[in-house]
Amino acid sequence: MEDVRTGWPWDGFTIDEVQLPDENDDYGVPSEDEEEFNVEELQRDTGFSCVVVVDNLPVVGMEKYEKLLNVLKKIFGQIGEVHEDGLYMPVDESTKKTKGFAFIEFATPDQAKIARQQADGYKLDKNHTFKTNLLKEVEDLSSTTESYKEPELKDFVRKDNLYEYMLDPRGRDQFAVRYQDMTEIHWNDPKTGTSEQVYSRSFWTESYVQWSPCGTMLATVHRQGAQVWGGEEFSRIQRFGHSKVQLIDFSPCEKYLVSYSSQESPNPREAPMAVFNVSDLKSGQTLRSFQGKLDDFMVSGGENRPQGGEGALQWPLFKWCQGNDDKYFARLARNKSGKTMISIYETPDMNLLDKKSLQMENIVDFHWSPKEALMCVYQGEANSGNQPARVSLVRIPSREEVKSKNLFSVKDVTVHWHPDGSYLALQVARFTKTKKSSYNGFEFFRVKERNIPMEVLELQNKQEKIVSFAWEPKGHRFAVVHGDGARPDVSFYTMKDSKQIKHLGTLHGRPVTSLHWSPQGKFLIIAGLKGLNGQLEFFNVNDMDTMAINEHFMCTNVDWDPTGRYVATSVTSVHQMENGYIVWSFLGQQLYKVNRDRFFQFLWRPRQKVELGEEKEAELMKNLKKFSKKFEEEDESLKSRADKEKIAEREKMESDWKEFLDKKRKAFAAIEAEHKRLLGLSGYVEADQQYEIEEVEVEEVLSVKQEKIH
């Protein structure tokens, strides 16, 4: 017999009379099942954002399944953290072969985005190039409706002018400084004896900042990648995903950005892995990624040096062809047999030029001309010196060798291109016959002249050490620091005579470690840095005359501004004391000094090159006095305004002091009577009350000595 329930709430009704809602009607109250379903949908959405779909994979059988899976784990494990069991490669059940794509799940959506950028276009082999998408993007595409919906017109948003800094009516230059956790942008305002801050931000970068070659952007480096900023408010222009990025480099025309990172292998016996990304600066898209063991990219010195034991990584690894619209970039590499070669890549497809590297015997290094697609290639000696060293000039893309020179008994070669590509200097260190010592000399190529004639320059004392060599940026002269002592000599030469190099003069016994030409030529700073405590000689090469001698104690850097009017010297945090910078005129006059603890960088902002043309330049030179008078009046006005501001500031300080003094006097007068009354009660007698002075003489016997008198 079935139990009959009694009591509340069972009394007073029958179960058949109860009306239940329709199964599809929730009466506005969602069920727990639906809430759980919504949570699952949300988790699935988040999961889609973390998953990368990799297409164009090789179709392999089950015997190669694990091998391909491990290759994918190795490639994508360098980019981010792949979930355990987060790599799935579907298999066709009918053929027992993979379907040519895979799903890879990362720990975070940001890592998935970076992996999508870096791996897209990655060449697994000559027949398989990765095509990557986020699973979220695939889902969004699949959910696109077939009916066309006209997009909404967005309001016009004015973009920042990246060349705004060039429009300063007073023609001032900007510079960036980085100290402690701060990065600041300033106008150089020497006429007022100070600088004007434009922008300031703390923790703007995690390592360093870098101007683009034309000065339109400032790059910052972060753990997740690099970012570039520009415009009046220094808003973000683009970001580049590259996990743990360490170094960046711009192409000369600011079309591309190269970034580099390295990561230790989980296996301590394996070499660190390196990733180099070449990205489009406008879109931020990675166009080509170079990945492999770090040792594979540390190539130098030709065939006589073993692979993997070649020292530090040379940066920039990729050298850009200058003055050719960023058409080519190249790096030194080794083929499978271990021989060095030059791999030249062509933009924008980022593939090898003519699908092959430049093969030459025993390549040690190469250098692009600053103005054209011409490459100087240095080949070292081979066969125990039986095959001499060689320097060649090779045109790209034809690979035509336009000039070459054999060099015998070579110890080392240093290449110095003139900034306008007119001349090439080779600083050659040669062994003596006994091989126990070496001597120095120079080989010069007149690149712009017919048949590229060559000349040899030997110093009077060939055994002397070459400390420094520097071309005049705009002109035909060069300077050489030579000598073995603490105070070497500085010699000047000119290439202007087409017949031979002419010696202009020598400065003897200078405290110098480096030479710094003005960007406009004519003026030179002979600097004694490092152990010479910042000795600075401002020298006029036209008149062979010293304009000024100064000192910036412990100076580590000398930097001319783009116009050659001003120069900054700085002491960075490599020294614990005297950190900061000084701005000088080209004549050697100190304009202002700024001290900053933990000072890291001083960077002048490069100027976009503006071609006026010969006629316009001639007109300016003709009317130079008129323009000079105008600018002198403006300078005097600025000085006068600065003086007035200083006077006003001092007058305000004096007024504030008098106001403070009057306030304190009134306060003292208000309490003076009460103060005296309290002193009287205590019996204290103030110093200004009546008193008597009494002088007392005291005699004191210091010693008594008895002597016999004969």
Give structural notes.
With 710 residues, this protein is of the alpha+beta class. The chain is 17% helix and 36% strand. It has seven helices and 45 strands. Strands 20, 21, 22, 23 and 24 form a five-stranded antiparallel beta sheet that branches. The protein has a four-stranded antiparallel beta sheet with strand order 2-5-1-8. A four-stranded antiparallel beta sheet has the order 11-10-9-45, with no helix packed on it. Helix 1 (32-50) runs parallel beside helix 3. The chain is globular. The protein starts with 31 loop residues before the first helix and ends in a 28-residue tail after the last helix.
On the 0-100 scale, what is the average pLDDT?
85
User: Number of DSSP helices?
Assistant: 7
- Principal-axis shape equals globular
Report the uncertain regions. 1-46
Oligomeric state of shown chains: single chain
Number of strands: 45
Helix fraction by DSSP (H/I, runs of at least 4): 10-25%
**CA-to-CA gap between the ends?**
158 Å
- Cα-atom radius of gyration: 38 Å
- Biggest beta-sheet profile: 5 strands, antiparallel
Structural class: alpha+beta
In terms of DSSP E residues, the strand content is 35-45%
Question: What is the topological layout?
Answer:
Blueprint: H1 32-50, E1 51-55, H2 65-77, E2 82-88, E3 91-92, E4 97-98, E5 102-106, H3 109-119, E6 123-125, E7 128-129, E8 131-134, H4 135-142, E9 174-179, E10 182-189, E11 194-202, E12 209-211, E13 218-221, E14 225-230, E15 235-241, E16 247-250, E17 256-263, E18 273-280, E19 286-293, H5 294-297, E20 319-320, E21 328-334, E22 340-346, E23 351-352, E24 358-359, E25 363-368, E26 374-379, E27 389-395, E28 400-407, E29 410-417, E30 423-431, E31 438-446, E32 454-457, E33 466-471, E34 477-482, E35 489-494, E36 502-507, E37 514-517, E38 523-528, E39 535-540, E40 545-551, E41 557-560, E42 566-571, E43 580-585, E44 590-595, E45 599-604, H6 614-622, H7 624-682
Helix pairs in contact: 1-3, 1-4
